[in-house]
Amino acid sequence: MKTIYLDNNATTPVAPEVFEALTPFLKDQYFNPSSMYERARGVSDALKKAKRTIANFLGVGNVTQILPTSCATESNNAAIYGAARANPGRRHIITTSVEHPAVLEVCKDLQRQGYEVDFLPVDRKGNLDVRTFIRALRPDTLLVSIMHANNETGVIFPVDELARLTKETDPSILFHTDATQTAGKLPINLKGSFRHVDMLSFSGHKLHAPKGVGALFVRRGTPVRPYLIGGHQEGGRRAGTENVAFIVGLARACELAIEHRDDEDRIRAMRDRLEKSLQEAIPYLEVQGRAQAAQHDQRGGPLHRGRRHALPVGRGRYLRVQRVRVHVRVPGAVPCSARNGRAFYRDARLDKIQPQPVQYGRGHRRSDPRFPRNRDQPEKAFALLGQRKGLSHRKDLMDPKFCQQCGGPLERREIAGRERWACASEGCGWVLWGNPTPVLAALIEHDDAVLLVRNREWPEKMFGLLTGFMESGETPKEGILREIREEVGLDAEVVGLIGVYSFDMMNQVILAYHCRAEGDIKLGDELAGVRHIPADRLRPWPMGTGKAVSDWLAARKQPD
Amino acid sequence: MAWEYSDKTKELFMNAVQGKDSAHLGEITDPDGIGEHGSIACGDAMKFMFRVERHPTDPLKDVIVEAKYLTFGCTSAIASSEALCAIIEGGRYTPIQALEIDNAAIVKFLEGLPSQKIHCSVMGAEALEAAVFNWAQNRGVDLRELGVDIHPHEQEEGRIVCKCFSMTEPYLRRKIKELNLRTISEITDAVKAGGACATCHHAPGGLQDLLDSIWGTADGAGKSISTAHAADGADEEGRLSPYQFAKKVETLVDSTVRPMLQKDGGDIEIVDIKDLLVYVHLTGACAGCVGAGMTLKMMVEQSLKDNVDEKIRVIAV
Q: What is the arrangement of strands in the sheet containing A214-218, beginning at the earlier edge strand?
């Protein structure tokens, strides 16, 4: 089976040129670059040359500003802890809620040590609000650490602008950026647009160098205390015998990245093609990170290659997110990983989104075809994806971690003929029955057409019946009339009940009513828009409230 | 990094390079005391020597009658050397008395030195000290017995902190205390340490650690966002509350700045006001206009400075 590796934002294979450049230093050229004798000199010269290449790659003149590290995680740790320890007078840090854990967890650790940390939120599209950023700057701000591009959404943050604003506000605030996702993909010039950036991290394995090597740029004079001490290497700023082979490999990879900068257009075209076919296969697919990309397009720069695809379902709730990362360079490997994306985005508190990444594509490590192949049956596609990763809303609900009554551990027990989650603590007796929630839906005839609505959280082209939850003390009929009033500002009457449908995926039961209403529409908070579709042009969708529509249409065709 | 030398500095320098009679550039054959400081590799070096009128019985009553120097360095290094010689010759000091001449006296004689050049005056004082030590050896004077604290070997002993300028911990500790140096840049200005590769600034046992161990850990750092209000402290009465200040800025922008911008199809939005920093966003025709930067500085910032507070800074968002 032919496989295509699409996960180059997670890691890349080592380029043959890189492999070739680095192997001599694993074989004959094994000398310690710090040794004084002639043959070691050759190694130390190669090391110096490599550092100069890395410096040029970042637009840096002075080589002493480049510290080779073991990975971007080390670079980030060194930058953040180093800045904190060198500036004890300042105790406030600004970062984003969507940083890579190598920044996020370090900031949280400092928080535990008494630092104040602002985790700036991002909006639904993953963008950062510059105003919020400005408001966060304080007189005692020590450090701003904001990634260049997000590792989940591919959204590019305006690091040049943010760094400028930081430095114009107070030159003593240090600015760090994690450019792991962008080094080699977007041009970085630390003397040009990034001239206000004090520290920049990146790793080698994202640009075809091996894993286990990275770099940290520290602008000359930046107050940072060394993280690894106990050696004279790098002037004592990063002790430890240099990983010569991999640093040479990283340098070669940097050269290749410069040579291949023009590939962006080709890669972008490939990405767009894949995206299009995915959208055709899954009609409700929403692409995240597009707004920012478009903005970047206008500036004439290349795009980040990663995209996030989300499938929003239900009332204000994202059922799951699929991540598709496209950067087709080397054919012949494996698909995406979701790893900790789920927990990560929970923390991010992205509005109401609780995306749950799902892997898909075909993998050579697993033999099952994980991509839903039947394009004509999106419903099946949903179900398939949900089953595989166990990430549907229902599964989420039915898979709790702790007792909701006493907080104790849970166990599986057979209760009332079925195996269920129940509290393991003595005397508690809580059982997760998981009863479905009733949902009211209205097919409203208004102005000789059927009124469809779009929830704010839904993707742009997705419309459906008006829905809402019942409140206590009201009958279903009262409930649906209230919802219609609240959402579209109409006084309606109930013509009749269309039917009752179970929506297993959301663990809901839908009570669908046929209603009629007149008057002018006034949109409520939850809706982004309405649409009038004449009944004869109404095509029911295969899930959720769609079944009610299809039953109503069927009943309508039959003469009374 | 522009700096201005005082007239006195320029005059002394010119006298020296033109070989005027009043200058002290040169050497004394058989000096009674000779000392050096600095190194040519580090950019400036000074050899200082003096001749004394020997007292027949008591060397402590020797009087310095002539002083000369050879200095490799910049205008202020030469002028500092001249100043040192002039002060010494003018005062008929004994060598022990001459030790009283410190870098502050040299700076005063020069009618001021730019902060980046303070190290030149320090070099003069150090070379003098070395010369006096040399004199004491020649004349069999035990400085220790006299309670004079001279540290001729501290540069050779002790851990090197600044590798570029070969400066040791004992020397730097003494200088930090003597000259009351409080920050790394003050150290660099005074003795040059940390002025080249900068790696010793925050290294373990580096300059910051020396400062912290001498003065205690940093306090009061982090007040850099324009603290002009606090500094103004004196006129409490005339001070606006942050709200009043913001209101005043907004009113001014509404009444003068905005109408002007709107005439050209542009507009302005105040994004945030943080103390004396005003963050604005130019919109409409102004967004992306080449002249936006100038507009911001010349028009917006200037009118806010003129009408609200002269310390206001406008930042484009």
A: A66-69, A214-218, A199-203, A174-178, A141-145, A92-96, A116-120
